Structures are given as C-alpha cells and as structure tokens.
Amino acid sequence: MQRNDVTRGDATWAGLSLDVRDRDQPGLCVFSAGQQLLISQRARPVLLAVVDEHLDGVDFWRTDAYRSVVPPLRADTARALAGSPERWAHHIARYLDESQGSPLHEGRWLLSCDSPLPRWRHADTSHAEHWSSMLVDGHPDGYIEWFLHSHAWEVLPLRPMPASDDSRVKAYRKQAREGTLPPVLLWWVSGLDCHLILDGHARLAAAIAESVDPPVLQLQRTVPRDDLAARTQEAAEFYEDELARFAELRAVHGPTVPDGAATAGPQLARLLHDLNTKQQLTWAWPLPGGEAEWQSIRREVTAGQEWPAG
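Below the sequence we write its predicted structure tokens.
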C-alpha cells in the first residue's frame, strides 16, 4: 500500500491517501443480496441489514463477532502522538494495511480528519448531547432511520458502547481531559448511509462522558486510480479552455479584461483536490448463495427469532 499526504489549498494537512493494490476482497466485507446486506469479518457475520422497501431506513442485527483492526493503544503512544491527526493517520494506516480484518481493498482511499460529524452540532447543544444523538441505538437489533436523518451520517457502533464507569472509559476520560485522547476510527458505508466504528468505542464513550469533541479519523473510498488520469486531464483541459476564453475576451475588449488565471487557478486546485478527497460509494460483493444464504445466516445469528418484525 502506498501512502501520500493530502493537503488543502492553504498547505495544511487534510488527510492520508491510501493506494491499495492486489487485494481483491477485504477481510471486513460488505455483501449484498437484493435488499439484504451482510457485513462479515473473515467469514464471521458482524452485521445483517435489511433496507426498508420504501427506502425510509435500514433494520439491522448486530452480532458480537467484530474485532478491532487496531490493537489496544498504549498511553505513551497517545501522549507521543497527541494533537497530530497526521501522525495518528500514519500510525493507524499501518494496522489497516496489515490487519486481515480490515475493510481495505483494491483502490484508492482517504483517511481524513475532516469528518462532517462535529459540524452538525448546534451552538446551543453540548458535545455530549450531540454525539449521543449521533449514535444509533439498539443491540442486538435496531433501526437506522433515513426519513428524518437522511445524509446526517449517524454513527453505528459495531459492538455495544461501554458505560461511563467502565474501566477503559475511565482511563480514556483522563486523556480526554488532558487533550491526549486518540482518535475514533470511523468507516463510512454508503449502503447504510452512516459511519461504523472500526476502533474507539471506549474513547467515544469517554468523550461523551467528558462532553468534548472526540478526535476523529474517517475512512472512505475516493476516485479509483483508473479514473484518476482521465479526470486529471479533464481538469487541466478545463483550465486551458478558461484561459483561452479570457484571452479571446482580452483580444476584443482590451487589457482591462483579466487573463483568467485568478479565477481558473483556484477552480483547478479545487478539482484536483476533489480527486483525492471526494467520497465514493462503498463497494459491495454479491453474497454467494444470494438471498437464500442470507436467510440461512439470519436464522443462525438470531437463533431463529423473527427479525425484522413485520
């Protein structure tokens, strides 16, 4: 896997680009069978989901099979990397690459600190209230609502959230107060229209208990490398066409017309930046055996319970 830092127009760090090769199917994989979804980690069912027939939301059933892709983080590591999302991204990217239970597969990805989630908070809402409201409730089953929360990008834990008095949460609460809390690792899954917590359940619980914004690193797919060259060429041609258009105007109206670089330059920069950062839909693989296999897995993980209701 190749890693490259991505910067904004002002040269500040925006994220880490991950170019993954020779990995046809990930260890943490989304499978589809009609309206049914299955997220499986190394053949262990992690999450079953059914998209509502009216597209109002998703019923889900969560198992206890998920295992974090990041090993437990030491306090000295947290202190050493505190306040540096860039260094944290490189640290975590190594585990995403090496873990056999990672969602990474062939293509280009972004590990970014520019999550939209903190920006949804209203000024009169505390951090604790905001992040608590973003969490999708329910274990083992629950519902991700799209009708009222479309594109709100809620957060779905892959295991039950620990209580505020949990020993791990207590340790992280101290780090939250000190400003050394490691980031929560999120994976945006378009088929669910929400984020899954890949690592940091206890850290998010600690941030909520202390009513602070947790540091976040968000994993998402970006423009595939097959499209990158073509789109880069399109952006360059747009820039050249704009300069030519302004040159024609200058030839007719004189030097009072600008040369266009001040307008076309920033537009080109934004287009090129989007090629490294624009969110792409999550890949899903056809489930071998289709809906019949999904129903078989459903009966097994729910112990024969009727789910979803209705």
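The radius of gyration is 22 Å.
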